[in-house]
Design a protein that fits this description.
The protein folds into three domains: 9-123, 3-Layer(aba) Sandwich (Rossmann fold), CATH 3.40.50; 131-192, Dna Ligase, domain 1 (2-Layer Sandwich); 199-309, D-amino Acid Aminotransferase, Chain A, domain 1 (2-Layer Sandwich). Helix content is 30%, strand content 26%. It has helices at residues 19-35, 84-97, 114-123, 143-150, 173-182, 243-256, 291-309, and strands spanning 9-14, 40-45, 49-54, 57-62, 74-77, 101-102, 131-133, 154-158, 167-170, 188-192, 199-205, 208-216, 232-235, 260-267, 274-280. Helix 2 (84-97) packs parallel to helix 3 (114-123). The chain starts with 8 loop residues before the first strand and ends with a helix.
């Protein structure tokens, strides 16, 4: 999928998937290279691109040759198609690295799913578990590589998963292959498993912590601490909550620019190191634990909205 590769070079990314569209884009890339005689032009689909956050460092790369996307002089988003989430994540990486790209509208999207959230949190310098994203078919045959990056067992979860669904703990190559086969049309990330004694959900409204729940699984047969999967929950007094944990949670909420959000925070058992797991756009306010308390928070929020107009 390469027309020419000389510096300075341009990467064009397309959502093309069918043979006829791939052929058309390939011809277009060659024609573009003919017009841009002083530039190399390479094109790729979103299924050719992987991303990592390792030790807080964010990277996007072409899977075939491991070339960093930020090594290109400029990036042109030809189309998004069904890969808008991937495009948003890539735009965040390019903007942070100072690489010019066509598609600035992507930066105005508030990250909704785990992949774009991952990149936004990394750009903000917030701690999160080491993470690898690959298009689904590229996980096959890479178990040893994933084990080297993340250790085993590792988490394997859908980027659009909610309430603990489609979130698995993977220990061997067969389990990974089975999950890839079962969810072939979806998008997953692999993430380092952080041993823990539960996690924390902070409900934050307009940059103020309104409720904190500690959630704990009731069995070691699962790694999930979601109340929707049977975990228990108890309220944590806001006034006694650790200031450092409160600070990174508020920064995480601010990075997503949401009025109401649920920040999921986990503390590693052996090191007490905190990790942001997710910044939820819809933090289960109408269900789960402590619905009455959450309802009161929403009622206060809506009341203040009305009063702000008067």
């Amino acid at each position: 999928m390469t027309s020419t590769t000389s510096a300075p070079s341009i990467l064009m990314i397309s959502a093309a998937e069918t043979p006829d569209k791939i052929s058309m884009i390939d011809q277009f890339a060659h024609a573009l290279a003919g017009q841009l005689r002083n530039y190399g032009v390479k094109w790729a689909t979103y299924r050719d691109v992987g991303m990592t956050v390792l030790d807080g460092q964010l990277r996007a790369f072409l899977i075939a040759d491991d070339r960093s996307v930020t090594d290109f002089s400029a990036v042109y988003f030809k189309s998004y198609g069904s890969y808008f989430e991937q495009a948003v994540a890539l735009a965040e990486i390019l903007e942070a690295a100072g690489v010019p790209f066509g598609g600035k509208e992507l930066l105005h999207n508030v990250p909704e799913h785990k992949l774009s959230q991952m990149t936004r949190l990394a750009v903000a310098g917030l701690p999160q578990p080491d993470t690898l994203y690959l298009p689904m078919e590229h996980y096959l045959g890479r178990f040893d590589h994933i084990r080297q990056l993340l250790g085993v067992p590792f988490i394997f979860k859908a980027i659009d998963g909610k309430k603990g669904k489609d979130n698995y703990l993977v220990s061997d190559e067969k389990a990974l292959a089975d999950l890839v086969s079962e969810h072939a049309e979806r998008h997953f990330i692999a993430q380092k498993f952080i041993p823990n004694d539960g996690d924390l959900r902070l409900v934050i409204v307009r940059q103020k912590i309104q409720l904190i729940m500690k959630r704990q699984r009731t069995s070691e047969a699962t790694h999930l601490n979601n109340t929707s999967t049977g975990a228990t929950a108890q309220l944590v007094p806001i006034e006694t909550f650790d200031e450092g944990l409160a600070g990174i949670s508020l920064r995480a909420a601010e990075s997503m620019q949401r009025d109401i959000t649920g920040v999921d925070l986990l503390v590693e058992r052996s090191t007490n190191k905190p990790y942001i797991l997710e910044v939820n756009a819809s933090p289960q306010l109408a269900s789960g634990a402590f619905v009455a308390e959450k309802l009161a928070i929403v009622a206060d929020y809506v009341t203040k909205l009305v009063e702000s107009k008067e």
